[in-house]
Amino acid sequence: METNNTNYSFRKAEMADAAKVWEIIAQAIERRRRDGSTQWQDGYPNPTSIQNDIADGWGYVIEIGSEIAAYCALIFDMEPAYEKIEGKWHSDGPYAVLHRMAVSDAFAGQGLAKAIFREAEKTVLQSGIKTIKVDTNFDNAAMLSILKSLGYQYRGEVYFRGSARKAFEKTLME
């Protein structure tokens, strides 16, 4: 589904956004639990994770009007867990990583998850990087569907905190 609201902005998160971002992440944690997923059910992410994202310049939000509607961490640094993959990455060059993506319950079903991926991809290209990598839990059906629809290719399994995660990669075109 394409976003019903094209009047949004994508911007770096500020520390003043941390409480609202955490509220959105907490909603997503509960959504994962209700869906029967094990993803994000172990105390991570947490408010400190979000504050660290923002302090490191990795946090981004989609804002509609003056309300934060979605969040992601867009990281322009190596992801240590991606160095050991059961499978094979297509690209060995520089890459960006999308982590901790969530949409507010108030904006769910409006296509903002895809919008945040598209905005992240534009930001990555503008930085001169041509590859974005992401992972998700095997039981996160919504995210698996989004990744497939946006052309992300399954590359194998990576491990976070002892659990296998499905790893995906997309080569970006200008």
UniProtKB/TrEMBL annotation:
CDD domains: NAT_SF. It comes from the Bacteria. The keyword Transferase applies. It holds the Pfam family Acetyltransf_1. Keywords: Acyltransferase, Transferase. PROSITE patterns: GNAT. Residues 8-174 form the N-acetyltransferase domain. InterPro entries: Acyl_CoA_acyltransferase, Bact_Acetyltransf, GNAT_dom. This is GNAT family N-acetyltransferase.
